[in-house]
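Input.
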Amino acid sequence: MTTIIGILAFLFGYTVKKEGETVVLEKVNQSRNRESEVESVKQDVEKLWKRDVFSKNTYGTFETATVLAAIANEDKPRPQVLGLTSTKQASQYKERDSVAFYCSNRSVSPTVFVNSGIITYNQKYVKVKGVVINNIEKIIPGMLIDTHHTPNSWTSIVESVDVNTQTIYVKDGWYKVKSEGSSHPTVPTSGIGFEVNRISKIWGVNNNVFLHEGDTTEKAVAEEIGLFKYINEGSIGGIDLVNFQKKATYGIQVRKSGLTENAEGFGHCFVAKDSEAAFVFHSLISNNYALLSFLNGNSTNDGFMIKADGELNKLKLLVSTFENNQTKYSASDQKIFLLKKSLPETFTIQSPEGKAGEFIFILNVGTEIITLKSEGGKNFVYGDVTKNSMQLPNKTSVIFVSDGLSWFAVAGNYNQVNITKKGFPTINATHIGQTYVDSTNRVAYIAVQTGNGSSDWELITAKS
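Output.
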């Protein structure tokens, strides 16, 4: 291109040099006074140099309010920037918008829809007799064709059309539509209709980025939205998602692809960095949900819901159940333990280290007293007792909170239950005044101290 520019400049008595991204023409022959021609050439050169850049000053509404517009499936496309058609309308909307790139897409009916007549399928075509196919002349090679067969339809790609015989030829045959796809073509049953260029889902923008093995590119972002606010007043935002008509299904959906075999989810679905508030919910209706969690679409029986006024009407937490011979937690993030044991075992929970402020709830629904220990031999603090173990009677519970060093028992009925067992008491008492009934010898004991096994108990009745 530089050679072309040089030739043009020479013909008009100029030399060419480049300063940054700008082409500069310098006069070398003052005797040639053809300024208008030179200016024209200069403008053409600038257009050539900036051929991939589109720029203009916007004003007003519709197409003059945007630099570029991409509009799909509209007979009379006009970008709806402001969309004002009268001065009166301009008085109802105080903003004056300018758009660099406008895009839109609208729903449409199939180009051709056939559900009557004599319909004959062949491995290479479908032919219709007895009725006139409306808009058959509008079919373009490359359009998709789908049959009306149920429960599985057939699909193919239009290769050509014979309007006179109403025959639509397809490329590579017909393939039955199934979740796993079809490996080879088959011929659809004749007598069932079809449609051409059916559009089931439309997109405004579809951004994609690809990182491939062997390439040196290491990072990708599908879309970056940059905000530059240099003033103290005013407002600036990243995404303004507006629903103009009936209730939308969702505002933002984050999911993994169901079409790719090795598709995985996200490490972090939502990340808010350096924000004053990570999430702000605003509603004019108190019964709207600020948070709604559900499993497999069932919002009635699963998950939890928090209303706009702060009312929590359901909360479910993951419970981990442990039975006989399961003597230790199985995941570091477990919070709720259900002990269903018929043996007097020892059960080990996580260390409190690194878990300051976290809680653990343990419910013993078994038939025996369970001795609790903490990984690393860390202490339990309950009442006035600090020990590296704690006994949890059957049919009782305890809630622990970590200070980063020990587990503190802050709630539960672990210290409010009297004990009935066979034989002399050897277990730790959980609180002074607790009673222990020896059902074999028919005597009772009372706790005078805690945390020291058999020495915690004093006999208060004699066998009759």
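Helices lie at 2-11, 35-49, 87-90.
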